[in-house]
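User: Show me sequence and structure for the first protein, then do the same for the second.

Assistant: Starting with the first protein.
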Amino acid sequence: MSAAVAVVGATGRMGRLAIELIERSDDFEVAAALSSKDSLDALADADLVLDVTVPVVSPTIVDAALTAGKPVLVGTSGWNAERLASLGRRLADLPDLGVIVVPNFSIGSVLATRFATIAGRFFDSVEIIEAHASSKIDSPSGTATRTAELITAARAELGPVAAPHADQRARGQQVASIPVHSMRMNGIVAQQEVVFGGDGEVLRLTHQTISPSSYEAGILAALRALPAARGLTVGLDAVLGLDA
C-alpha cells in the first residue's frame, strides 16, 4: 500500500523534483502539492509530510504537521542548533511522531561531511567555502552549518579551531567557531570545500553537486525511514546508518 505524501514547497526546484520522484516510486503517492503560501488543511489527508520550503516558513509547516499528527521530513535549510533543540523539546511530548531533518539529501555530501568530521580532530585550522545557485536565499547553507557544528563537536576536548582576524568581514561568518564563506552564483548547483591547514600540509575535502538527480536516493531513503522515526533525527547519515 502506498504512503500518501504532502509536499509543501511543491513549486520550488526541490519540490518539483520530489513530486516527480514520488510519482515514479512504487511505495509513495502525492497526497497534496502545496506552495509555501497555500492553506495547510490538506496535510490532514496525508500520511507523511515533506517540507522543502524556505527557512522563514519551515517551522510553521512542521508545527502544522505535528498538530495534525503527521510525521515530517524537513529538507529546508535554516534549522540551526537552537531551532533543533526547540523542536526536540516539542517532540518529547509527542512520543508517537518523528521528524527527520536533512540539510542535504546527497549521499556524497553526507559522506564528505563525515570525512570532514574525522579530519577536524587532527587540524587546528579549518575553514569552509560553500557555493550555491544565486536563487538560494539563505547563507551559510544548512550543509555548511551542520558540517561546522559536527567538526566542532568532534573537537570538544581540543577546543575551537584557530580563526585569526575573525572580526574582519572578509573572514566569513563564524559558525561554531569555524569561518564559513558563501558564494551565490549563476551556473552553480551546489558545492562545498572544507580546507584543513596543518604543519607543512593542506587537506581539501570537496563535494560538488552536478545535477539535482544526486538528491533522489537520499529523498527516498529518508521518506522510507520516516514512518518508523520517533523523536528528532538530524542528518541523512543517521538514516543511512553511518554510525552502525
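Switching to the second protein now.
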Amino acid sequence: MDVSFNGRMTRLASIVVLSMAASAAYAHNLISETRLEYLGVDELNQRMERGQLSSVMLVRHLLQRIERLDKQGPAINAIIELNPDALDIAQVLDKERQGGHVRGPLHGIPVLLKDNIDTSDSMQTSAGSLALVGQPAAQDAFIVQRLRDAGAVILAKTNLSEWANFRDPAVPDGWSGRGGQTRNPHVLSVTPCGSSAGSGAALAAGFAPLTVGTETIGSIICPASLNGVVGIKPTVGLLSRSGMVPVTYKLDTPGPMARTVRDAALLLNAMRGSDPNDPINKPSVIDATDYTALLRTDALAGRRIGFPLKFGTSAEGLESDPQFSRALEVMQAAGAILVPVELTDPLSEQVDEALWMGIKRDLPRYLATRTAMSAPTLDAIVRFNEATPGDPAYGQSVLSAANSIDFDERTYNALWQKIRHENASVIDDLLNTHQLDALVLDVGSPGLNVIPLAGYPGIMMPSGVDADGVPTSVFFYGAPWSEAKLLALAYGYEQAAHARQTPAFKP
C-alpha cells in the first residue's frame, strides 16, 4: 500500500534486469545530446521569445527522446500513453505566441500527467488498471483545465503503481497491469518508488520539464526522493481533486513535480484555484498567492529550522545519511538557525480501516462520472481483477477489503478526525515549542507518514547521490498553507547546494 514510505526505502533492490552493455551504450549517447530536455521553464521561455525554439520543436524533441529511452534502450517505461494531439496543440500555441498572445510562463511548455487524472481527450484515465480502460473521461480534471488555460501542452500520461498503490501490498512500486514496470533512470535496478513512479522517473529522464503526481501517503515525496527531483505535497485542499481517481478525499492531493523549485512553483501557480466541485475551507488569500514571490537566494538567513536530533547528538546521523548531514551544513552556512528536535510518530491505529472506508465512499462517486465502463462499480472492479489479474497475476487484497468493509459516514469522519488530530498535533507542538519556521527530515528516520496523515505540506528536495548512484534527499515540511514559505526555504537550499544530478542510467 501507499502507507509506509520507510518500508519502501528498504526495497532498493530489484525490479528489472538490463544488459550492462546496452545501458552503457545509451548512457554514452546521452553525453552528446543537446540537453534541451533538461532546460528549465524560464530558459525555454527565453528561447521561445528569441525565436530560437518553438513549442512544436520542443514537443518533437521530447517525443523522440521518449521513443529512444522509454520503450527502447534503458526502457524506463514511465510513459503509459502519448497524447496524439500534442503536436497540434503546440502548433496552435506557437501561432498564439507569434500573434503576440502569451498566456503565461507555461505557454507551450509540455507537461506530463499521472494516469489517474482525467483528460477529456483521446487518452485513457485508468489508474494503471485494465478495469478502467474504455471510454475516456468526459471532462478535464479541474487542474487540467487550469493547465490548458495556462497554455501547457499535455504531452502524455505517466505510469503509476496500480490504483495509486492501493491494489495489493505485493504489487511493486511503479507497476501497473496496464503499464507494466517503471524503472529508475538513475539506477535501473532500484525502485522508482510509488505511486507517482512514472511522473518522477519521466522527469528525471528528461521526458518533460514538468509532471503532475498525486499523493495519499507518500506517493509524491517517495518518487521525488528516489528519482532525484523536486516534489511538492501540498496541504490537502490547496489543489482541486475533481477528476482524480480517489482513495480518500481526506488525504488525496495532486502535486507538482519538477527539476527545480522555481519550476515546481510555476506549476503550482498554474494549477491552483477554487473549484466549486471540490469546496474546501482555505484562507481567502491562498488562491491569489504567487508561489514564486519569495524565491530568493538568502531565504534561509535567520530562519529557525528543526532537524532530527540524531544528526546533532551523535555519529548515528552522519553514518546513516552523510548527504543529509551535508545538507544541514549547507543550510547553516546559508544563515539558517538549526534546532534539534525529535519527530515522534503517533502510529495512528485504524489507518488501514479509514483508507478502506475512503475507497468504499469516494471511488463509486468518481466511477459515476465515467460512462460506458466495463467495470462501473467497486464490486465490478474486484470481479474484473479476479477474472483478469494481469501479468504477473498480483492480488487485490486492498480493493477487496474496501469492497467488503461496512461503511458508516459518522464512523468514517470520526476516524479521520482522530488520525488527523494525532498527527497534526505532533508537528504543531514542534513548531510552537521551538518557534520554528519549518522542519526538515531525512528519509531514513521515522515520521515521514506523519506529514501526509496530518494533511500538512512538504517539499522533497534532491541532496545528491549515494555511493551507488541512488539519489538522496531532504524533506522540508511545516504548517498548513505554508507552501510559499517552504518553497522559499527549499529554494535557498537549492541555490546553495546545487545538489541535483542528471541520471546515469546505471544497470
